[in-house]
Amino acid sequence: MSPDTRPAVSVIVSVYRRADFLGLVLDALSRQTDDGFEVVVAEDNQGEEIARVVARQRPAFGDRLLHVSQPHRGFGKTRILNAALRASRNPFVVFLDGDCVAHRRLIATYRKAATPGRALFGRRVMLGPAITARLLSGEAPSPPSLLALLRSDSTRVEDSLRIPFFRKANQPTGIWGCNWGVHRSHLEAVNGFDEDYVSAGVGEDVDIEWRLMATGVALESVKHRAIVHHLHHPAAYSGDDVAIGRALLARKVAANQVRCLRGLTGVGEPGG
Q1: Cα 189 vs. chain centroid, distance in angstroms?
Q2: Using CA atoms, how far apart are residues 103 and 226, in angstroms rounded to an integer?
Q3: CA proximity to 191, closest of 258, 132, 112, 135
Q4: Among 12, 15, 25, 259, which Cα is nearest to 142's?
Q5: Domain covering 9-254 assigned CATH 3.10.450.70 in the classification
Q6: pTM of the predicted model, to two decimals?
Q7: What does the pLDDT profile of the chain (272 residues) look like in tens digits?
Q8: CB-based contacts of 85: which residues, under 8 Å, 6+ apart?
Q9: How far apart are CA 180 and CA 252, in angstroms?
Q10: Which of 175, 210, 172 is nearest to 97 (CA)?
Q11: Quick one: which of 13, 16, 21 has its CA closest to 73?
């Protein structure tokens, strides 16, 4: 048998409260077809509820399940993602949100597609409130089947179709923070996530995307291969939050600040 040359994966799951969601997310990760990964729960808060979920799931993962947290002081996703990166141990990193339940072949897909010089990005099925409630109560299997999705109040159901040989024409942009992956070395080259972003919707995906691309990293779609199911909840941020982030992004791009000053290394006051 030839040795497995695919990179081991660190899955960073960013969470803010919603321990009930995290239970489903970790359960799905515990049932992956490929176990060449670890999970780092990245909590922008320090709540007992999340710690209890992690403790409950630990027997399924052993030392492959880590938990990092920080006090919640406004939007802190970029800070906690950097903390999770520092705690993680594998050469390829996949980012999931704590409201996204993975298809059982998600890790196998990312490990197979992982290539230096590329950032991979998938999409998500948008679960409706009714099927989300059924998943949380245990009335429906998680992740839901295609048939269950078709009969539900979900949208973007077509994104649940897994077509292993599918290759989507690559787009000029594509990273969504809830489902993407890249080699650690590329993140280190841009100093990780920019902690100047203190509003949601830009810093954890749009900003990191342009900085990676500026160093020569290409984007590759893994749509219909890397699939997650987004649990329904009210919007966590507003259009004003996005506008603030985009204004900061414009200043960063104009200054060509590809390697951020406040990231994996470097400290200072936020603001850019």
Answers
A1: 19
A2: 7
A3: 258
A4: 25
A5: no
A6: 0.93
A7: 556 789 999 999 999 999 999 999 999 999 999 999 999 999 999 989 999 999 999 999 999 999 999 999 888 999 999 999 999 999 999 999 999 999 999 999 999 999 999 999 998 999 999 999 999 999 988 999 989 999 999 998 988 888 877 666 655 558 878 899 999 999 999 999 999 999 888 888 999 999 999 999 999 999 999 999 999 998 766 678 889 999 999 999 999 999 999 999 975 444 44
A8: 12, 93, 184, 187, 192, 193, 264
A9: 22
A10: 175
A11: 16
Alpha-carbon distance of 122 to 124, in angstroms, equals 7
Q: What is d(CA 111, CA 109) in angstroms, rounded to the nearest whole number?
A: 6
Opening angle at CA 34, ends 114 and 78, nearest 5? 55
Q: How far apart are CA 144 and CA 165, in angstroms?
A: 22
Region class of 266: left (phi > 0), else alpha (psi between -120 and 50), else beta: left
Distance CA 17, CA 78 (A): 16
Torsion sign over Cα 129, 135, 137, 140: positive
User: What is the distance between the alpha carbons of residues 18 and 22, in angstroms, rounded to a whole number?
Assistant: 7
Are 97 and 178 in contact, with CB atoms under 8 Å apart?
yes
Residue from 215, 120, 204, 214 nearest 168 by CA: 120
Burial tier of 189 (Cβ tally within 10 Å: 0-12, 13-18, 19+): middle
